Amino acid sequence: MKMETARAKALSIKGLNKSYRIGRGRRLPVVTDFNLSLAPGEFVTLLGPSGCGKTTVLRTLAGLEEFEEGEILLDSRSIARLPPHHRRIGLVFQNYALFPHMSVFDNVAYSLRIRRVAEAQIGTEVKTALTAVGLEDYGPRLPGQLSGGQQQRVAVARALVMNPDLLLFDEPLSNLDAKLRVQVRSELRRLQQRLGTTALFVTHDQDEAMSLSDRIAVMRAGRIEQIGPPEEIYARPATLFVAQFVGKVNALPAQVTGYEGGAASVDVLGQMLRVQAPAALRDSDVLALIRPEAVVLQQPGSGLAGRVEEVEYLGDQTEYRVRIGSALVTAVRSTLGKSWRIKEGDHLGVAFDEDAVHLLPREGNLPT
């Protein structure tokens, strides 16, 4: 059975400001001049560290938090001052928030009964929602009889049963173990794509954001630092903060020595590279952002001279910390199929894949 949803809605958040009272006449800004738009059916993730304001944005959208300024529109219709039960928004919590004494069926049916929907219709709607999440035979069970992943799917079904215009996810996978988290996030993404519902997801986990999202909005101190497709966020971060938060990165001091045809000639630790860069970086001190997988380890005598200070075996790959002069560079190699074994203390050559180097102005992007 395929669950029918309302036509996907566009979401627009404009100039949102939210603060908390922390004392007599004092307020702490949590979200500042926040602007975000989602296209109908789009899956966007708010990614950022604890305390950056991402969950506050979500709770404000759901009507669980008041705010001082701003506007929230669903398909150009303001919902900013509507009570939560009139917003047609489904919210999936981090801790599932299931009633332990009620069956799976009754948990999903709860919001429908609050709205005095006829029992015959409730039966149909709950069955459809449970089928959508693959739990059509689990209606009689109690939450305590389910695994963590199944409980999370019940929470999703409870959000879907109201046929929402917008789905909100508040770190819904954080209580699951690593393997189950991967499985459930894949199920969530397939379900959202099949239903076509507009969705906003909150997490601090970069892997979740990368695998789930059409676009990622990286937040810092109540604002969006950068928003874009996952590939853009990873390969072309707008700031050093974004680069360091989304994966590991080598941020190396470098100097642009020439510029021609949209490409800069850059000296990175003594290796000359040609890197695509804006003209504004001409003749300037820059940071060369190089992901560990773009660091090429070679036999001694080629490339830059390096010495291995640390080796960390990670299963599918091995991570190396290599000293090049005063800089410590991180590199990774696939563990399988490598006849050349690198050990701590080894001397080797290092090169950088210039197609994967991204430049930022050094001013305002000091490494942390």
From TrEMBL:
It is found in: Cell inner membrane. One of its GO terms (cellular component) is ATP-binding cassette (ABC) transporter complex, substrate-binding subunit-containing. Its main location: membrane. Signal peptide: none annotated. It comes from the Bacteria. GO terms for molecular function: ABC-type transporter activity; ATP binding; ATP hydrolysis activity. SUPFAM superfamilies: MOP-like, P-loop containing nucleoside triphosphate hydrolases. Keywords: ATP-binding, Nucleotide-binding, Transport. It holds the Pfam family TOBE_2. It is a peripheral membrane protein. SMART domains: AAA (SM00382). Residues 11-246 form the ABC transporter domain. PANTHER family: MALTODEXTRIN IMPORT ATP-BINDING PROTEIN MSMX (PTHR43875), OSMOPROTECTIVE COMPOUNDS UPTAKE ATP-BINDING PROTEIN GGTA (PTHR43875:SF1). Belongs to the ABC transporter superfamily. This is ABC transporter ATP-binding protein. It comes from Microvirga alba.
